[in-house]
């Protein structure tokens, strides 16, 4: 994989991870909700105009364009496993920003993911 291809894959993965973090921050700001027939419009509007949710959707849109460009250059069997890097990033950022748990079992799983992505990238 050349530098341009790797950059496209990495940028797509990072934007996808950022999108997830923005969506989580947005749902934290909105709070717990459920959709019912009587509240679907107010809750939908609250979510649609929440700045973090809009940021997450923008990150998804840009990541989609970058991902399509990456897939035009890299075999999907190599590009797709790279998405796992997003999980690793999100686990650590969610631990820092949202106070989510990072137990030993989760860290071990993250280690396996990192080793797996490394092996796939080198193949």
UniProtKB/TrEMBL annotation:
The way it spans or sits in the membrane comes to: Multi-pass membrane protein
Residues passing through the membrane, by range: 52-71, 78-98, 104-121
Subcellular compartments: Cell membrane
* Plastid recorded as keyword: no
Enumerate the GO terms in the molecular function aspect: transmembrane transporter activity
Tell me which InterPro entries the record gives.
Answer: EmrE-like, Small_drug/metabolite_transptr, Small_multidrug_res
**A GO CC annotation given for this chain:** plasma membrane
Q: Which UniProt keywords apply?
A: Cell membrane, Membrane, Transmembrane, Transmembrane helix
Domain of life, per the record?
Bacteria
Cross-referenced PANTHER family = 4-AMINO-4-DEOXY-L-ARABINOSE-PHOSPHOUNDECAPRENOL FLIPPASE SUBUNIT ARNF-RELATED, SMR FAMILY PROTON-DEPENDENT DRUG EFFLUX TRANSPORTER SUGE
**Which family does the UniProt entry place this protein in?**
Belongs to the drug/metabolite transporter (DMT) superfamily. Small multidrug resistance (SMR) (TC 2.A.7.1) family.
Identification of the protein by name? Cation/cationic drug transporter
Native organism: Sulfuritalea hydrogenivorans sk43H
């Amino acid at each position: 994989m050349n530098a341009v291809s790797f950059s496209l894959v990495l940028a797509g993965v990072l934007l996808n991870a950022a999108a997830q973090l923005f969506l989580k921050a947005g749902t934290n700001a909105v709070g717990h909700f459920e959709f019912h027939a009587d509240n679907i419009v107010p809750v939908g509007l609250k979510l649609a105009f929440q700045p973090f949710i809009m940021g997450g959707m923008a990150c998804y849109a840009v990541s989609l364009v970058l991902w399509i460009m990456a897939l035009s250059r890299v075999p999907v069997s190599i590009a797709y496993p790279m998405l796992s890097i997003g999980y690793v990033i999100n686990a650590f950022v969610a631990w820092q920003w949202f106070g989510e748990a990072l137990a030993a079992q989760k860290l071990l799983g993250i280690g396996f993911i990192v080793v797996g992505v490394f092996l796939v990238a080198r193949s």
